[in-house]
Prior knowledge:
The structure holds 2 protein chains of 2 kinds.
Chain A: E1 2-8, E2 11-17, H1 23-30, E3 49-52, E4 55-58, E5 71-73, H2 86-93, H3 103-117, H4 122-128, H5 140-155
Parallel strand pairs in A: 1-5
Antiparallel strand pairs in A: 1-2, 3-4, 3-5
Chain B: E1 7-10, H1 14-23, E2 27-30, H2 36-41, E3 49-52, E4 62-65, E5 68-72, H3 77-82, H4 84-89, H5 91-97, H6 103-108, H7 111-117, H8 124-130, E6 134-137, E7 141-143, H9 144-147, E8 148-150, E9 153-154, E10 162-168, E11 172-179, E12 186-195, E13 198-204, E14 211-212, H10 214-222, H11 226-230, H12 247-267
Parallel strand pairs in B: 1-3, 2-3
Antiparallel strand pairs in B: 4-5, 5-10, 6-7, 6-10, 8-9, 11-12, 12-13, 13-14
The structure holds flavin-adenine dinucleotide and FE2/S2 (inorganic) cluster (2 copies).
The site of one FE2/S2 (inorganic) cluster (FES) has 10 residues of chain A, from loops.
Amino acid sequence: MTTVSMTVNGKPVSADIEDRTLLVYFLRENLRLTGTHIGCDTSQCGACVVHVNGRAVKACSMFAVQAEGAQVTTIEGLARDGKLHPVQEAFRENHGLQCGFCTPGMIMTAVDAIRRRGAMDRETIRYELEGNICRCTGYHNIVSSIEDASKKMSAA
Amino acid sequence: MIPYNFEYTRAKSLSEAQTMLAKNPDAKLLAGGQTLIPTMKMRLANPSALIDISNLEELSFIRASGDTLTIGATTKHGMIAASADVKRMIPALAHMASHIGDPAVRAMGTIGGSLANNDPAADYPAAALALNATIKTTNREIKADDFFTGMFSTALEDGEIITEIAFPKPDRGGYTKFCNPASRYPMAGVFVAQTKNGVRVGVTGAGPGVFRVEAMEAALAKNFTPDAVANVAVASGDLNSDIHATAEYRAHLVTVMAKRAVEQALAA
Ligand SMILES: Cc1cc2nc3c(=O)[nH]c(=O)nc-3n(C[C@H](O)[C@H](O)[C@H](O)COP(=O)(O)OP(=O)(O)OC[C@H]3O[C@@H](n4cnc5c(N)ncnc54)[C@H](O)[C@@H]3O)c2cc1C
Ligand code: FES
Ligand code: FES
């Protein structure tokens, strides 16, 4: 057992965990932040994407002990004062989800891409979504949502 | 997917990592974890200890000096893809890095981890071979020609840590790959590099390990155009056959990718 401490969605957290605890299980089971999903066994689907020190990473492919001392943001940490994050709002407006399983990962990936690139065209958005799989939408409206959010956020 | 348990330590320095590795032959280095962790989740690897070197500042850098580009072992794919120095010195290497996996994999995965792992379908080994890179370790310097010794195997000895990779700047370079549509790893990826000393061609994905194609190198040394390799075939006998593609199909892909890599090198 190891005591791990980090900041998750702005709050300091600490727990005794086995070293083999994946970050995704730490978030879901220790902290009960179940917005971060597990969609595959092969590190390919992106349903588990969170931000560690500002960068989008797959929480299923990282041990919680690797995030010792880090700033972690999950989908639960995006809304501010009861107001959706602009990327969340854009998914709502553009019908960017169906079942919603992939959505937290899609949004965390999109927020990171917009931070790096600002406004994006559709081709760039599809390139940035390489590691996020959706079984429902056919991606069209996900791309539209991110395009919309990236333009609005860069104009703001 | 829960791996066997192990003991995790974050190394504070390279020498500390070396000492820990020497003490426990069952320990493994953890860099980006983008190969090791999925493998541990499948329980195909079960080290008793992990020594995390990903936070070692001394191994994370990109240095351009004269005609040599030197990249620290724990430098992440995303940093290499975005580096102005890499884009200026070896644009094909930046291009390659920008197409490894996806953004989240590139935010964690490292060049040293990729070379040490030597997956037969990994991208960097083709670049290291074609660019005639030198792999520096805690013990010595190893030429790329001597480093890759077969499927998932390298010249690294127990306890040896890659510290940096030195790439001589080529006059021209190009890399193209044809990806497996599911895993996105290359089924054939070809890196061509032209220097004053000639041309080198490195192929990944197609065979059990990365290899050079001397017939293409000779043809391109005489005439550096896509047409020069259009009729140079690699023997399919040594290539992989699986549910994704036959060896003959992979052999065909190597020629097509080589042509496109030359086109890219000429366009750069
Ligand atoms: C979804 C997905 C898609 C991917 N797609 C691609 C792709 O298209 N092309 C591609 O090339 N790769 C791909 N990868 C693999 C990725 O590039 C890995 O990052 C890389 O292969 C391993 O680097 P790492 O830093 O993650 O190493 P780790 O997983 O941490 O380590 C790998 C091995 O190398 C050893 N090691 C690490 N660093 C050193 C060192 N400095 N010295 C000695 N030994 C060391 C470790 O002990 C371990 O055995 C993909 C991975 C995923 C999860
Ligand atoms: S659960 Fe992490 S990539 Fe699928
Ligand atoms: S909305 Fe169902 S998986 Fe994407």
